[in-house]
Amino acid sequence: MSGLTVVKALNRALHEAMAADPGVLVLGEDVGVLGGVFRVTEGLSEAFGEQRVIDTPLAESGIIGTAIGLALRGFRPVAEIQFDGFVFPGFDQVVNQLARYRSRTHGRQGLPVVIRIPFGGGIGAAEHHSESPEAYFMHTPGLHVLSCACPQDAHWLLRQAIACPDPVILFEPKARYYAKGEVDESGPDLPMGSARIVRPGRDAALLTYGPMVRTCLDAAQAAAGEGRDVEVVDLRSLAPLDMATIRACAERTRRVIVVHEARLTLGPGAELAARLDEEMWGALDAPVLRVAAWDTHYPPARTERAYLPDAERVLDALDRSFAY
Amino acid sequence: MSGLTVVKALNRALHEAMAADPGVLVLGEDVGVLGGVFRVTEGLSEAFGEQRVIDTPLAESGIIGTAIGLALRGFRPVAEIQFDGFVFPGFDQVVNQLARYRSRTHGRQGLPVVIRIPFGGGIGAAEHHSESPEAYFMHTPGLHVLSCACPQDAHWLLRQAIACPDPVILFEPKARYYAKGEVDESGPDLPMGSARIVRPGRDAALLTYGPMVRTCLDAAQAAAGEGRDVEVVDLRSLAPLDMATIRACAERTRRVIVVHEARLTLGPGAELAARLDEEMWGALDAPVLRVAAWDTHYPPARTERAYLPDAERVLDALDRSFAY
Amino acid sequence: MVDIEDPTQPVRLLTPEGELVEDPRFRWRGGDGSLVEMLRGMRRGRRFDVEGAALQRHGELGLWPPLVGQEGYQAGIAAALNPADMVFATYREQSLALAMGVSPADILALWRGAGLSRWDSAATRMAPYSLIIGSHPLHAVGYALGVALGRAGDGPAPATLAVYGDGASSQGDVNEALVFAAARRAPVVFCCVNNGWAISEPVTRQSPIPLYQRAHGFGIPGIRVDGNDPLACAAVMDWALGRARAGSPVLVEALTYRMGAHTTSDDPGRYRSDELTRQWAGRDPIERLQTHLLARGLVDRPWLEALDAELDDFGAEVRRTCRELVDTPIERVFDDLLVEPGAHLAEQRAECLDWLSTVPGSTVPGEEVGA
Amino acid sequence: MVDIEDPTQPVRLLTPEGELVEDPRFRWRGGDGSLVEMLRGMRRGRRFDVEGAALQRHGELGLWPPLVGQEGYQAGIAAALNPADMVFATYREQSLALAMGVSPADILALWRGAGLSRWDSAATRMAPYSLIIGSHPLHAVGYALGVALGRAGDGPAPATLAVYGDGASSQGDVNEALVFAAARRAPVVFCCVNNGWAISEPVTRQSPIPLYQRAHGFGIPGIRVDGNDPLACAAVMDWALGRARAGSPVLVEALTYRMGAHTTSDDPGRYRSDELTRQWAGRDPIERLQTHLLARGLVDRPWLEALDAELDDFGAEVRRTCRELVDTPIERVFDDLLVEPGAHLAEQRAECLDWLSTVPGSTVPGEEVGA
Ligand SMILES: Cc1ncc(C[n+]2csc(CCOP(=O)(O)OP(=O)(O)O)c2C)c(N)n1
Ligand SMILES: Cc1ncc(C[n+]2csc(CCOP(=O)(O)OP(=O)(O)O)c2C)c(N)n1
Ligand SMILES: [Mg+2]
Ligand SMILES: [Mg+2]
Description:
The complex is a heterotetramer, with two copies of chain A and two copies of chain C. By secondary structure, chain A is an alpha/beta fold. Chain A has eleven helices and 14 strands. Chain A has two domains: 4-181, Rossmann fold; 196-322, Rossmann fold (3-Layer(aba) Sandwich). In chain A, 35% of the residues lie in helices and 19% in strands. In chain A, strands 3-2-4-5-7-6-12 form a seven-stranded mixed sheet, with helices on both faces. A five-stranded mixed sheet of chain A has the order 9-11-10-13-14, with helices on both faces. The radius of gyration of chain A is 19 Å and the shape is globular. The N and C termini of chain A lie far apart (45 Å). In chain C, 44% of the residues lie in helices and 8% in strands. Chain C is built from 13 helices and seven strands. A five-stranded parallel sheet of chain C has the order 1-2-3-7-6, sandwiched between helices. Chain C has a two-stranded antiparallel ribbon with strand order 4-5. In chain C, strand 2 (160-165), helix 7 and strand 3 (188-194) form a beta-alpha-beta unit. In chain C, helix 1 (32-57) crosses helix 11. The longest helix of chain C has 26 residues, at 32-57. Chain C is globular. The N and C termini of chain C lie far apart (52 Å). Bound molecules: thiamine diphosphate (2 copies) and magnesium ion (2 copies).
């Protein structure tokens, strides 16, 4: 399929998965007739009925908790959390229940539940609507944490997530929801969420995911003008991290910068820096640098450009890296 | 006061703070007549009455949410979460409300709320009773995150936390609750939660906090037998981190190991490694190593010794560090 | 004795046709002057809403949550409140917020993305907005428990009011608020605004039974009022707030209708019929009070024309205010975070301002507003 | 028509003195044989409890939550369940768990810290324990919604039962479970076990009114039963489960009393008087059924002596089982985490086993148990 937006690619993945397996259900707030506030679930209710596309009461803990119960009964629920910041009322069910069930039952009972979370800023939204909470989930064992950055991956990752026997949190970048691209519906033949080298380069590497992939590509392009050949890696999977690809990339480029909208302190970049520091000791030409949101709350929308990392900050980090 | 346990030191701090300021309240499950399951609030109900020592309904979100309201009305509530794992039902009120109120109100309204959380493992407890969730809070702006490791600090940090105009999460190490020590009630004259060099040393540094301070001291002692002079630093404050002390220590020792019961991936050690990698580039003789719990759920109690970091693992990390 | 919780009819004192009716339980005790004030307040609220929606269309605001049709209960609440009472409400109580003295500038700043809850909540008695649906009633209960503890100790104990929607009623936090209020007899009034919808979901998706009955299961009296009848709302709220001040929690369900979209981002045509909306148009709170006041001669055409002119001025002022809003400078995210943020945040602050100073056309730290 | 929710009296069919009484709403429909089975089940549950507490005292278990006094409703539930029904209960329904076929070994392993919820919940129909109070009723509702969706499609639709305590009733999650069940008519029975206490807090700290009434506020029928009367519990549960199978949620409050400590770590002397406990001792569920069966000649002294002998064997078996329990080897925390944990966890697993192999006296990975 050519020229689908991320939203349409996700929608198509849901249509396909629901058609292929009657056990796949969609639930969340406004996912039914309305098709979700971002229209990711558009048309599902008409196609598969109210029984399989469930407009839930307004309660995120209830959404995740009942999704767990549905999975116990043999279904594969795909839950939508309307915006990033709203996942916290359901956080206990994720951390203490969803993520633990397989361990708690000595491996007997896995929970094939997908939680879709539109995330990230840059869309001029109100408080709690521009968050990047992925680090909270990366620190939680028992979850797969994915993020897509383009229509192809949106489609592929969501199909893989639904097929996964364990819980998957899929972070969908709101700021890229309307970006268009080709979608090959068969998807690449890769382990779920393998990292992807979006732009190969030799001199330095930008490790990123979600909305910042675009920003990093812009920065890499600008850097090319200055004669720097910068690689951009879309991590796609934040848990587990595809360390083989990441290490290989660090080995080749010897300069690594991690870029994300999540906050600096204990954001994903902290783990990457810690691992690479140890695993690549002596093999890098500069410390792993991090370009991230400040360690504050998200600002009022009209100030968000001064909060979100942009290509300038990435270029500045590249300069700093090359200065070592 | 000499020979107080951590529990008694905390209890004393509460008694003093409540006597000094009628606005200080204690609330939580079983904190009243019972005095808390660990007896930290013992005698407060008798001394200050049921109005100021509130046995709440069994609902953590309600405890934190009403503590916020009490603070808005001018009180200084000290909420107890009975065990570490039970903080998650109240996590939304912490992340989306407590931590944000000052920012949301453009600095007008701070919330002097203390949340005490007995944390950590090693006490043979059931599921959800041995967690180390501090990293989740470190990643959340707008909170002070503290941990005490001895009676003196327990007393001092709790008094400081109650005096603080902003929210403080105090992690109390259950495994050290009955450790005894001197308590000077005036407390050191230091900024809240400055790191403390528990044992000075020149050859390597162990950065730690809470229950692992004891483990690190044991390891340092054993290392001394092998002729290694190992420093042990109790971070005491996890947010903000006392980077001045930490940097100075790293500069002196050139080998740093972070030790905690929190899980490895995006545990506190990740942030310390990332910062030191960048800030001390070229100035360390080995990468920052991390000794942490595995990236899994806490095991059944009888297996916990194979899960929790111990002196052996710290010594092994020291060996690895010296091997660089 | 009359059963105050009689479920058969919501409390109503003024019919949609503008006629006074008797209710065995409640009477309107305010003077005629306050009726006129209520009309003015509702008209002002609606005008503010019209301006807000227009400003959003013109790109001046990021979002606007229409309140049209919901002015009635807001006027009733405003009329019943004592100055020391404290209100925790939602983004759709803009008319009430204005009545309580929150400035249009502060509300506009929030929807423009120029600020968050900038207003002085201690002075206005209007708490900041929490956009996590259902999270604030617990704050209200905590505040009320604090009132009951009597630390302030001056004057008659104020009541606390928690206003939230039919959708919010499903959140665990709202139910915990009821638990805490009931268990400790918090001097709080819960006002559940049932406007029929939570975005696209009709209230039947939240509850098979009327929401005032939710209270009964917690041991709290619950009562339903015609939320488009400002007189009934004022009378019921007056009773409820009084009851709270005397130490007992109570829940009032205000039955109303969201005439517009959920927000300016929403398209209600996708999920509901115009038919229902048309029915509710006949129960407009402003129409009925205006008809009533005209009939009784308490206002007349010239008065209404004068009000129109006043509101035109107000509208112009709102537009001007919006244009003049200054964005919150980015350094406030650092400065407003903690009293003692520590050195690392100070470094980030410096780095941030440094970066901005090098980016051409970037936000130059603006002038201080709102604090 | 009899009002099934008459609040004046909990449903009771067997008095504390062991005499049958009429209830206008419910009748015991089971045969005499099942009465005898209930007695055996309760006695077995209590014996298990005695053994568990003793094992804890001897350091064989880390913790034990006494169930003494609460065998009645558990026997009633067991009698009323169909084989395909699914139960989500708490750590205090050990007697019920045994009745459903969970092995003593699996329960002991949990309290010993030798394992977590090792049993096969699909086969036993008993869900794993969630020690986060109040979190599991949502799972039950989700399960019930799944049943209603009829994916299994074989045989009569089973009912789902969520058992939780008076303390748990305050949690947001429990109330959300009621919201979801009511809004979507989940075929679920909520059984709120009101045993008077949540650790040191009397139920009055949670609610000023009886907890069966909580259901009413959500549009769900609620009824109170004498939780120490196994006959009444069986009859009410039979009705409730049938109602659920037919598609309607319902809440049953089982009124009982926690005769012992909250757990073996608890000291009830600190917060409650023995007086109340003594009163409740006169309402013991086992005593009353035993008295009744003796009076009717359905059991006799020799039968009871045989039962004693049987239970002595059972007790010995429980102790032996406990001694023979094998700890869960540490590598299971890796192996049971995810089907595809990835390379990093594989490295940690290797590092862990490597470390253990060097530590003298460390846990040698034991034999596989329970899976
Ligand atoms: C925790 C949370 N979940 C979801 C949302 C998204 N959301 C915003 S308003 C709304 C509907 C609220 O309905 P109701 O409480 O009836 O208030 P109304 O909008 O009708 O005034 C939803 C789902 C949110 N803001 N917070
Ligand atoms: C979320 C959470 N908060 C607190 C606890 C600690 N805790 C364990 S049992 C208990 C009391 C439970 O009371 P109730 O629901 O009445 O059940 P009972 O123990 O009486 O059977 C508490 C507070 C917990 N396990 N989980
Ligand atoms: Mg609504
Ligand atoms: Mg109880």
